[in-house]
């Protein structure tokens, strides 16, 4: 990919439909996600945001009774044509609640590279240190890398999970409401981190917090009842929404 082109497409979705059994959750979703930008998905609860997010790394494949049609391309290759394990190393996921493994801070970050076959201690340490630095956590934990990841505060645990994702050298980081379980100070640190990370990664974030979307995202997609109602540059969508439903949602008339 040529990183010099403004708004290089990272993902392209064509007519994505998804059902769980008889429940039609996503309806003809079409969108292009751009490289090294932060894209926010907003909308009321249960409107399909997180379900669509899980299409990008094929986590929905793990749900029985889930049927998907349409096409989703990453780097112009259909995600269905990727080995799921390879895809999930390219497309990392950070979940709503921090979920560090019950092991040391060091081993949390080294886990993925070890699974990929990296055994050299010097290389592993470099990966761990660099990932923790990129996640803005290294200075806080550098003297306690042998301590359990579970001993950290909630905000630190979430940054540890981000470091664990970075260690896999992904192209994309998916974030499913990554600050909803955190206090305002920890939230601010994660938001600052996201703005820093977009220099190296494409980021897609599901958020219920519209102020957060305006603070950190370049593009915003507004979902409602499984459809994308409007998708535009964040500043445009919030200041000059084209759709009445978008305007009603962002001004608090419903949702």
Structure described in brief:
This protein has 255 residues and is α/β, with parallel strands linked by helices.
Under the CATH scheme, which class of the largest domain?
A: Alpha Beta
Q: Summarize the biggest pleated sheet.
A: 6 strands, mixed
Strand order of the largest sheet: 6-7-8-3-9-10
Rg, Cα atoms, Å: 18 Å
Q: What percent of residues are in strands?
A: 25-35%
Into how many domains do the coordinates divide? 2
**N→C terminal distance:** 39 Å
Envelope shape? globular
Averaged pLDDT, please? 95
Structural class: alpha/beta
Number of separate strands? 10
The sequence of SSEs as H and E is EEEHEEHEHHHHEHEHEEHH
Q: What oligomeric state is this?
A: single chain
Question: Percent range for helical residues?
Answer: 25-40%
What's the CATH superfamily of the largest domain, by name? P-loop containing nucleotide triphosphate hydrolases
In words, what does this structure look like?
The chain is α/β, with parallel strands linked by helices and 255 residues long. It contains ten helices and ten strands. It has two domains: 1-75 and 171-177 and 195-255, Rossmann fold (3-Layer(aba) Sandwich); 100-170. 35% of the residues lie in helices and 26% in strands. Strands 6-7-8-3-9-10 form a six-stranded mixed beta sheet. A four-stranded antiparallel beta sheet has the order 2-1-4-5, with no helix packed on it. A hairpin with a 2-residue loop joins strand 4 and strand 5. Helix 3 runs parallel beside helix 6 (154-166) and helix 4 crosses helix 6 (154-166). The protein is globular. The model is unreliable at 1-5 (pLDDT under 50).
